[in-house]
Amino acid sequence: MSSPDPKQLQVAHAVLDHLNVLDYTALAEFLAPDFKHRYLPSTIHAADGKVERGKDEWLEVVKYNSSQLFEKVTYGPPLDVIHGASSVVFHLTSVGMSKSGKQYKNEYMVTFHFEGDKIVKLNEFVDSSYSIAYFAALRAEL
């Protein structure tokens, strides 16, 4: 059985740091070429209907959200951390403000799956009832 790799935990923390400062180039460096992202639970539906996104698609969604929908979103430090042989799980919260002035506060369980020090899969579990209501109201404002 493999031991947890401390570098993977550092990378997971760095992802949050780069999201907070909108450094997409540095963020991309942590993602494997075959990286996959999913929003979960399955009751969360992206506006475009996609269930899973690759590296470039996910980075574009992150860039779009931060440039078109939000003034700022800040991810807090993890409230809980689980670190396994090839994965890291964070329980965390975020706060932010939409471009229209609507306060944003969400809660997440994020699972990072690694091969070496590259993230191959990121599952982002959100507060589904909050997210569905918030983004429906936000889309209605656009």
Quickly list its features:
single chain, 142 residues, alpha+beta, 7-stranded mixed β-sheet
Q: How would you describe what is shown here?
A:
Residues 14-121 form the SnoaL-like domain. This is SnoaL-like domain-containing protein. This protein is α+β, with helices and mostly antiparallel strands and 142 residues long. It has one domain: Nuclear Transport Factor 2, Chain: A. The chain has helices at residues 6-20, 24-29, 55-69, 128-141; strands at 31-40, 52-54, 70-75, 80-83, 87-98, 103-115, 118-126. Strands 1, 2, 3, 4, 5, 6 and 7 form a 7-stranded mixed sheet that branches. The relative contact order is 0.20. The model has no long low-confidence stretch (mean pLDDT 92).
Q: Quick recap of the structure?
A:
The protein has 142 residues and is α+β, with helices and mostly antiparallel strands. It has helices at residues 6-20, 24-29, 55-69, 128-141, and strands at residues 31-40, 52-54, 70-75, 80-83, 87-98, 103-115, 118-126. The protein has a single domain (6-141), classed as Nuclear Transport Factor 2, Chain: A, CATH 3.10.450.
